[in-house]
């Protein structure tokens, strides 16, 4: 199952709206077993992992290890349970069930009805971490949100003048590009676009599937020269107020996603519902401070990744998180520490929302 999980991670950021599943086919032998097939969900979500693992092999009597309950419904491809049954596998070991109502136990029931031995729950916690975005989209109608903060030792993202390039070093920035590549989309607010005119693409990582670039702007009151200049290279989606005319952006190739407003700002809950409806499962938010505060305040941030540099900017600098209106520590969102790692001259620390992946 460890190999299947590792294979499934190859699909992170590449297979939405489908889950990033891995599958390994093992034939029993005197030494315990021999891998005869392996697969992971292909870019764009098809073919599925089981189909790829079974391709061109004789799997009769073999055991299939798969990280998610095999699908049991007809969509653009036939059900994976049918492929496993047709291959005459004798056993299927599953990490975790699929909450999609079209599957949700039906895949397991069909396999067992066909006389196949099924075991479920092997390394389930790891599988739920890997596929949290897909699981959240099905169960909570929203994608997983990772908030990235690159700040000074005292939590500032820019000097008093607005200068912010570069607080962290090149190794940290390269790590951020790898994290972008492992998400379906990169999200920023209009203030970040006005201040930095970013491209938000993945660079220095070879040929990769570019994430969707998303800008949250209630009034679309920003320029976006670099985002528009690269629109044929990576998609651009705009989350804006429903009463805002986005046609000039659409004419240049952007996708318009009208959202509800809270005052003059985007309602973060409605925005996440709209992004889930569009198929996204994993969103990497890179600021700014107001957008980060709104997502945290709405309980929508699942993981925080901080890159902290050994530089101090003082109270005059721009804080990494905007005002949240908190009066008590008990009301502040809390996260569990997952890892702390040195990245070049900086420190990366990763935190996860408590109980997010509880089974």
TrEMBL record:
Stored CDD domains: Riboflavin_deaminase-reductase (cd01284)
Record-listed substrate binding positions: 164, 180, 200, 203, 286
Cofactor note: Binds 1 zinc ion.
E.C. number(s) listed in UniProt: 3.5.4.26, 1.1.1.193
UniProt KW Chaperone keyword: no
Single GO biological process annotation from the record: riboflavin biosynthetic process
Positions annotated as active site in the UniProt record: 50
Residues binding Zn(2+), per UniProt: 48, 71, 80
Gene3D superfamilies tied to this protein: Cytidine Deaminase, domain 2, Dihydrofolate Reductase, subunit A
One protein family per Pfam: dCMP_cyt_deam_1
MF annotations from Gene Ontology: 5-amino-6-(5-phosphoribosylamino)uracil reductase activity; diaminohydroxyphosphoribosylaminopyrimidine deaminase activity; metal ion binding; NADP binding
Hydrolase in keyword set: yes
Domain CMP/dCMP-type deaminase: residue ranges: 1-119
SUPFAM superfamilies: Cytidine deaminase-like, Dihydrofolate reductase-like
Pathway as given in its UniProt record: Cofactor biosynthesis; riboflavin biosynthesis; 5-amino-6-(D-ribitylamino)uracil from GTP: step 3/4; Cofactor biosynthesis; riboflavin biosynthesis; 5-amino-6-(D-ribitylamino)uracil from GTP: step 2/4
Residues that coordinate or bind NADP(+): 150, 166, 192, 196, 288-294
Keywords from the named record: Hydrolase, Metal-binding, Multifunctional enzyme, NADP, Oxidoreductase, Riboflavin biosynthesis, Zinc
Catalyses which reaction(s): 2,5-diamino-6-hydroxy-4-(5-phosphoribosylamino)-pyrimidine + H2O + H(+) = 5-amino-6-(5-phospho-D-ribosylamino)uracil + NH4(+); 5-amino-6-(5-phospho-D-ribitylamino)uracil + NADP(+) = 5-amino-6-(5-phospho-D-ribosylamino)uracil + NADPH + H(+)
Domain of life (superkingdom): Bacteria
Cofactor(s) recorded in Swiss-Prot or TrEMBL: Zn(2+)
Similarity remark: In the N-terminal section; belongs to the cytidine and deoxycytidylate deaminase family. In the C-terminal section; belongs to the HTP reductase family.
Function, in words: Converts 2,5-diamino-6-(ribosylamino)-4(3h)-pyrimidinone 5'-phosphate into 5-amino-6-(ribosylamino)-2,4(1h,3h)-pyrimidinedione 5'-phosphate.
PANTHER family: 2,5-DIAMINO-6-RIBOSYLAMINO-4(3H)-PYRIMIDINONE 5'-PHOSPHATE REDUCTASE (PTHR38011:SF7), DIHYDROFOLATE REDUCTASE FAMILY PROTEIN (AFU_ORTHOLOGUE AFUA_8G06820) (PTHR38011)
Protein name stated in the entry: Riboflavin biosynthesis protein RibD
Source species: Octadecabacter arcticus 238
